[in-house]
Hints:
TIM Barrel, alpha/beta, 22 helices, three-stranded antiparallel sheet, Membrane-bound Lytic Murein Transglycosylase D, Chain A
Amino acid sequence: xxxxxxxxxxPMYKNFNDPKKYLLSVLIVLMLGxxxxxxxLPSPVPTPTTRQQPSDFMFxxxxxxxxxxxxxxxxxxxxxxxxxxxxxxGIKQVTPGQQVIIPLFNFRPSGLTAVGYQTVPxxxxxxxxxxxxxxxxxxxxxxxxxxxxxxxxxxRVITIDQLFDFLELGQVPEKSVxxxxxxxxxxxxxxxxxxxxxYGFPAxxxxxxxxxxxxxxxxxxxxxREMVNNNDIDVQCHTKTHRNLTKPKSGESFADYFxxxxxxxxxxxxxxxxxxxxxxxxxxxxxxDTNQLVVDLLKKHGYHGAFTVKxxxxxxxxxxxxxxxxxxYGASHLKNFEKTLKTFKGIKGFAVEQIDQAKFIRIIxxxxxxxxxxxxxxxxALLYWKMIRDFLIFKGGERAVINKAKQKVxxxxxxxxxxxxxxxxxxxxxxxxxxxxxxxxxxxxxxLFNPEHKQAHRLLKxxxxxxxxxxxxxxxxxxxxxxxxxxxxxxxxxxAYLTGNADLIPGMSLSLPVIExxxxxxxxxxxxxxxxxxxxxxxxxxxxxxxxVCGVKLTKSKDSLANDYYASGHKYxxxxxxxQAKSAFRTAKCLGHSEAAEMLNVLP
Length: 604
């Protein structure tokens, strides 16, 4: 078949037949060989008003003045999107005459594949010093070494807004990392800011507003404005006074505690708006502590997300109000710093396709897209039919052939979405049965087949939330519901606030936060008469001895206990109870926790 009949010009065809670069034109010729009609009509001459535009890909030949950044600016409207072109094509720069594919969409949304998923580490700093390193003070030269390490090893520092785009099924560079600095100490301006500026790295300051302008050791609003105006520095909320949001103070009633938390959220936001002119969207929990009540209050007060200090990296399905951060300690070595930069987690048990296994997508080209479809590799087939469609549109191919490719895309999409819905239903069933691991696997499959399945994504994010579903009964009142849920009718104000003072209609459902740590249900003391009972001889029942390992009774698996002690160690450490932290980390290490030894090396 002659290529001119499809609108493919011979020079472009030759440029695209290098197997080391791109073989798509070979695929097109093979595909068209089986679909051209016996009576071929001449290709219509496209005009600016009638020519179709590619939906997902552009195909260009690089010119001498081109770079990844300039191509990103031209085709993606943002030179910072250069990484997207580089990752798809597997290149770090372009050379004149090179054939480059421009992906116009998220080709790996959320970083999910059948072999694993992307994770984004968030680093948390507090103090910086020119001379000393201790628990929370990172020495200036060590901080610069860490930034240099990120640059030299291909990590891309992204903003919090980019992180949240990723958490909502977007896409970020493969080795993304976020930098945050807590509290509002002046060393962030004098030490961290110049180094961040040198490397061009964005960062977020989480400030407690009552700390600002207090002394030479704290930031001033003028310094904060300079950082915001002269660098990619963002400012978000760390509350008003840095009080623990999960605990009432000694002698503080629940009602007073509730009002105090609302002030912590609202007043800090008001001050930042007044001083800097914008509304904050995110919060870092003081001491990293939160609970479901605090999360629900954040949502109610317009916050889009919040950060803990749980030392893990973040997948796309992490709850937006329980985002993990790794605290960077001054005594930590560069090797320990590297261990916090986990950007991928492998998974097993999923059907792997060609699209899942490549370092970069462009290199995988089938002889025929239909072969993958017949093998059941629909996700791979969809990608290449999209490429065929857009290449033909780009080169002005025959309308009938373009329409055939379009129909293939529609057919495969429909099939994938149907399969996604089946897996989503399975995930919901498992979730209702409280089988969270099976639910998670089913929801992963739903998102593999349909990366835009927002219901599956939303359900994945709620797996850790703790709510009690309440059905309103006839004659129910706020006090009755508060008594039923919290064991205290005086908590009626809480029910009213969280439900927006909605009218109580029988049959309606209310989702209220579980807050057992704060609320102890009241119980009536019942007087009982003493009844004389005869002594009954009972046989002694032999009980199995619980095995003890590392001085701990194995009441559950070693891995679970190791995780418990590791979490306790961090809790003690954040509360400055160093001896208790060491003890917990030693036990976690003995039980086999892989990161406990690192923490023991950090502790003084």
